[in-house]
Amino acid sequence: MRIRKINLAGYRGVRGPIEIPCGPAFTVISGRNGSGKSSICDSLEFVLTGTLQRYQEESERGERISDYLWWRGKPAVPNHSVVLEFEERDGTTFTLGRVQDSDGKTGQIDRLCYRNVAPPDWVNQLCLTTIIRDETIAKLSTDQPERERYEFVLQAIGLASSVAVESNTSEITKYLNAIEAEARTIYDQRRQAVESLTFELSRARISATKASEESITRLRQLYRQELENPLADLSDLTKTIAQRIAHERTRIEALTKLKSKKDALDEEIQRLNSSDHQEQIRSLEFQRDQMHKNLEATKERLDALKRARTGQEAAAPTLTSLALIREHGGKVGLQGGKCPLCGSAVSAGNFDAHLKLLDETVHQGSETLAGLVREENEVKRQYESGRMELDTLSAAVVEARNHGETLDKQMKALEKEAQQIGARVDVASLSLEVSRASENIVSLNEDLTVVEAYAAIHRVTELSESLKGAQQSALSAEKQLSTVIRARTTTQEVADAAKRVSNEIVRERLAFLKPLFLELCDRIRPHSEWPEIDFLLRGDVRPFLSFMIGESMNPRFVFSSGQRRALGLAFLLAVHLSRGWCRLETLILDDPVQHVDDYRALHLVETLAGLRMLGRQIICTVEDPALADLLCRRLRSSAREPGIRVDLGYEPGEGVQVETRRIIPEFRAAFLAAD
Length: 675
Ligand SMILES: Nc1ncnc2c1ncn2[C@@H]1O[C@H](COP(=O)(O)OP(=O)(O)OP(=O)(O)O)[C@@H](O)[C@H]1O
Ligand SMILES: [Mg+2]
Description:
This protein is an alpha/beta fold and 675 residues long. 61% of the residues lie in helices and 11% in strands. Adenosine-5'-triphosphate (ATP) is lined by residues 12-13, 31, 33-39, 68, 71-73, 591, 623, 650, 656.
């Protein structure tokens, strides 16, 4: 299948409408920069995918390639469309196209490949391997990481499905592993249930041997009074016995408490009646009486002091008058040898002696009063503290005497307490009661064991049934587990086989591609120093594809950018030729000689001529008209399969224009021969 023509209107740089006829043999398009070469080469990808992958990741100021797929120049055009017409080998034709705002469906797109052998994303692979562009040559070959290069070749030549089998089986193995873990957990749980039921059953069997119908009848009789319902079931009987056990325990607790209280009380009474304690009381009474006597003596002394002080206070006005007279006499002095107070004649010496005597009398009087006040205060303090001490001693004596009565009261309260639980306040009888209650508990527990054992008879039947069920479900879990294990083992075998087979297929197909690649390298000659270029498949688990020159050197780091492009071109052409799944026999090259020197350009022309001989339809754009002419001469055409030469131009406001269009007739070498 080939491309017959390309019709463009309002698309990219084409205002149009224009038509590019494609020769069945080749179409060589020439034009300067910006004349529309790439727009034409891109049209196939745009029709198939609705976008241009190489711009896909770019976005600027919120705009994307989708905003520039249609003509944006002035003046605008009413119609936007891209339509490609294809021709089958039998001459039938069909078209694939896109118009602006179309629903994205592109008609009979599946006719371009053999669906059953095509890779899952064959449309993408078709675009990548049909349209060879300067931008993608190095990116898809030398500059691509080795692992991705391997994946790309696998996808492009249509071997992805064998890899898919491999990855599918590994997915299934993963899934089965998870199921196996789950089945194993279920199996373990069920086995555990069987084990614990077996244990329970054997315990119930042992218990069951300890009980009989008669023993239960006896117990029903024994607890008749406590059982609310005479026909009560076993659980009621268990409850009743358990209640009695609890009752006996409470009683033991109360008796023990009572006994310890009684012990403490007895000890206290004994202490009270001891001679030591009596002696203590007597000594307290003696101290109290002594204190009483002392206090009375102090009181008498205090009264005497009070009286003396009152007497002294009564003499105070006289002393005050004497002090005033003394002061007056001292100030006035002798008046003509006479005393200023009484007017009697007195010598100066006698007068001074009299004044001194008055001073002493006043001083003595006030000293005596102050001494009496001090002494009275001191004795008063002694009296007060003595009284407090006496009160304390009297209270201690009263308390010691009354303690016996308190103990009597406590004993009476204890007796009442004992009465309430039907006991006597007697240490020996309390001990007896405690040991009786303990014995009761022992016998009640025995009764309880009998009831539980009797219940175990019924439980044995129940447990036997449950065990049977658990064994069956463990068996089914075991079966399920072994089925899953079998499935996992089988899948693993299949996975191993798939991996083996897929590796073999991949290696086989690459072995097929290799001579093609070597041949193309030989024709294009990327590097004159290293004419031998090889590629190797390495690694079994995660294989990768590496290029090699000389003795294991990587051309990626040795070749110049032009040399890398030439090598990449050879590689992409080899991949293109190895696509077994593609029905479209067209190879589109968008200016493949960019950054390639004339020497290599000539080699490329020869290589394309070779591809043409293999029956490829070649659409190639170039900038140089001379190179376009050379291509037209070297690419073989025939009368049935002619080639076409198109020259493009660009008119401002009009966009891309087809300037000339001519059919290239068959080139006959004989024309060159001399007559
Ligand atoms: N959406 C658009 N609207 C209007 N003009 C556009 C649009 N997209 C691209 N163009 C113009 O279309 C013209 C053709 O571009 P194209 O890339 O096809 O040229 P080319 O021949 O491949 O050039 P080169 O040799 O530089 O690669 C250019 O002048 C470009 O500016
Ligand atoms: Mg271009």
